[in-house]
Amino acid sequence: MAGELSRAGPSPGGFKARLDRGGEKERQWIRPDTPSKCTWKLGKPLSASPHHHAETSPLPPLWWKCWKAGCARAVPVCSVPCCCCSLSALCAFAVAGIGLALAAAVKGYRCIIVMPEKMSMEKVDVLRALGAEIVRTPTTARFDSPESHVGVAWRLKNEIPNAHILDQYRNASNPLTHYDTTAEEILQQCDGKVDMVVATAGTGGTITGISRKLKEKCPGCKIIGVDPEGSILAEPEELNKTDKTMYEVEGIGYDFVPTVLDRSTVDQWYKSNDEESFALARMMIREEGLLCGGSSGSAMSVAVKAAKELKEGQRCVVICPDSIRNYMSKFLSDKWMIQKGFMKEEDLGNKPWWWNISIQELSLSAPLTVLPTVTCAKTVEILREKGFDQVPVVDESGVILGMVTLGNMLSSLLAGKVKPSDEVRKVIYKQFQQINLKDNLGKLSHILEIDHFALVVHEQIQYHTDGSSSKRQMVFGIVTAIDLLNFVTARERERKSN
Ligand SMILES: Cc1ncc(COP(=O)(O)O)c(C=O)c1O
């Protein structure tokens, strides 16, 4: 995430036009991987250190959880017996963009957050609520391409008067904050005795700040860096070899080494992966009540491996950088986990008797469809008469164009966006779920947890005069929760009476 702040100025969205013309200009930017000018060196006397050493007053205890051996043994990814050291999770829940948007809201600055598409909608919604403007960039864009989040942030900065780029990849305050606060907190709460710290790296601010302070004050402490497969931050270089180009865990790993990441203070790197990260995050939530995000799972998935080298009584601190709040629609959702292949339906435990019955078995009424040329007034009349809330819109050849729902149509009519005499094609709605006639009722029940209905389709193969063929999706019907409930209750009644 690259944050951009300017004093409240041009109208929101005003930057878009300038952005379009911006491509003609020569690019002005500072790479986020420029060599660091920081003069910090391990072993330098503190008086010569560039870091300031603010005295911190004792902090209120954070939520510390001790993961003893018994708990770690239950970790599914960890098949070898675990150590008997204690694993403690330090929860430091904040995301840079949200912190910036919050400060900008209070100070009255205009705040533009440039973030890759991969970032969750929960982050976008919180940022929007804080008044930030959001610009999404392609997740796959290389960091040095003009369309990456870094590239777009620089373009905006160059085009908006009085704009500043906070540049978390180069900003020295990023690791310093962790040097002065997070690391001090760890030392305070562990009475200065820490044997291992496990932390993920995104910008690298967290791991650099913590490891520099610990190397100074607790020299024996081993620093373990966690980098996802598909990223290139780990050392040695061979660790980064993979076919993976994409991973789902947010906030960690990059395709460049940020200026603020000082890899000389990391003793050993481990690679993490999505499967283990999400499994561990869900386990920490379920068994420890730690409402953490996916990258906390990445850190813990590595910690349970790395901490095996520790002896009884030694301490391993695991940094949990983010909370569950940002991922409610992602790894917290069984549906998302199944869709992404991180969980199987079978993992959800016992299924009800109707789960694997196909949709074909439901007695759905004959499909009612309307042509796109039917007027809104006529469609409302048809829906009222038939007692339906929605109807598919299909063309003359039966191909599905979308849906019209009573609610959607009425709100467009009431808002004056359409007139009753307009054709329904103007209010077609495409955000609906389709399900195949051969899919099972289990899949349908997942859809109906979120949507009011699903469009039941079946595929037809159509042969053309030239001998070629094409597949077309045809409407078979609409299915709602009432259809599923009627089916289940009727069959249950039959089963009881037999
Ligand atoms: C969810 C999440 N995890 C981990 C990190 C990594 O922290 P750092 O950038 O300090 O390396 C970030 C950074 O923004 C993050 O958002």
From TrEMBL:
<dbReference type="GO" id="GO:0005634">
    <property type="term" value="C:nucleus"/>
</dbReference>
<dbReference type="GO" id="GO:0046872">
    <property type="term" value="F:metal ion binding"/>
</dbReference>
<keyword id="KW-0663">Pyridoxal phosphate</keyword>
<dbReference type="GO" id="GO:0006535">
    <property type="term" value="P:cysteine biosynthetic process from serine"/>
</dbReference>
<dbReference type="InterPro" id="IPR036052">
    <property type="entry name" value="TrpB-like_PALP_sf"/>
</dbReference>
<keyword id="KW-0028">Amino-acid biosynthesis</keyword>
<feature type="region of interest" description="Disordered">
    <location>
        <begin position="1"/>
        <end position="26"/>
    </location>
</feature>
<dbReference type="GO" id="GO:0005737">
    <property type="term" value="C:cytoplasm"/>
</dbReference>
<keyword id="KW-0129">CBS domain</keyword>
<dbReference type="Pfam" id="PF00291">
    <property type="entry name" value="PALP"/>
</dbReference>
<keyword id="KW-0198">Cysteine biosynthesis</keyword>
<dbReference type="InterPro" id="IPR001926">
    <property type="entry name" value="TrpB-like_PALP"/>
</dbReference>
<feature type="compositionally biased region" description="Basic and acidic residues">
    <location>
        <begin position="17"/>
        <end position="26"/>
    </location>
</feature>
<dbReference type="InterPro" id="IPR046353">
    <property type="entry name" value="CBS_C"/>
</dbReference>
<dbReference type="InterPro" id="IPR050214">
    <property type="entry name" value="Cys_Synth/Cystath_Beta-Synth"/>
</dbReference>
<dbReference type="Pfam" id="PF00571">
    <property type="entry name" value="CBS"/>
</dbReference>
<dbReference type="InterPro" id="IPR000644">
    <property type="entry name" value="CBS_dom"/>
</dbReference>
<dbReference type="GO" id="GO:0004122">
    <property type="term" value="F:cystathionine beta-synthase activity"/>
</dbReference>
<protein>
    <recommendedName>
        <fullName>Cystathionine beta-synthase</fullName>
        <ecNumber>4.2.1.22</ecNumber>
    </recommendedName>
</protein>
<comment type="similarity">
    <text>Belongs to the cysteine synthase/cystathionine beta-synthase family.</text>
</comment>
<dbReference type="GO" id="GO:0019343">
    <property type="term" value="P:cysteine biosynthetic process via cystathionine"/>
</dbReference>
<dbReference type="InterPro" id="IPR005857">
    <property type="entry name" value="Cysta_beta_synth"/>
</dbReference>
<feature type="domain" description="CBS">
    <location>
        <begin position="363"/>
        <end position="423"/>
    </location>
</feature>
<dbReference type="GO" id="GO:0050667">
    <property type="term" value="P:homocysteine metabolic process"/>
</dbReference>
<comment type="pathway">
    <text>Amino-acid biosynthesis; L-cysteine biosynthesis.</text>
</comment>
<keyword id="KW-0456">Lyase</keyword>
<dbReference type="InterPro" id="IPR046342">
    <property type="entry name" value="CBS_dom_sf"/>
</dbReference>
